[in-house]
User: What shape does this take?
Amino acid sequence: MKRLAISLTFFLVLALVIGYVLSGPSFMDWGVAGGLFAVAVAGECFRFWLRKSRAKKRQTTGI
Assistant: This one.
């Protein structure tokens, strides 16, 4: 859980910086920043799903 929080915080800051740099000093480009952060969240969800499915495959059903 700690890794998830650190990863999402890093990508949030990165998305905000990229949104600010692309828009210039006039205003924040929230569409770009939000889109990049959405991609990061989707990637973290996929990583969580992949880890969960691999753990299920390792479980044995034998007695």
About this structure: The radius of gyration is 17 Å. The CA atoms of residues 3 and 12 lie 14 Å apart. The chain has a mean pLDDT of 85.
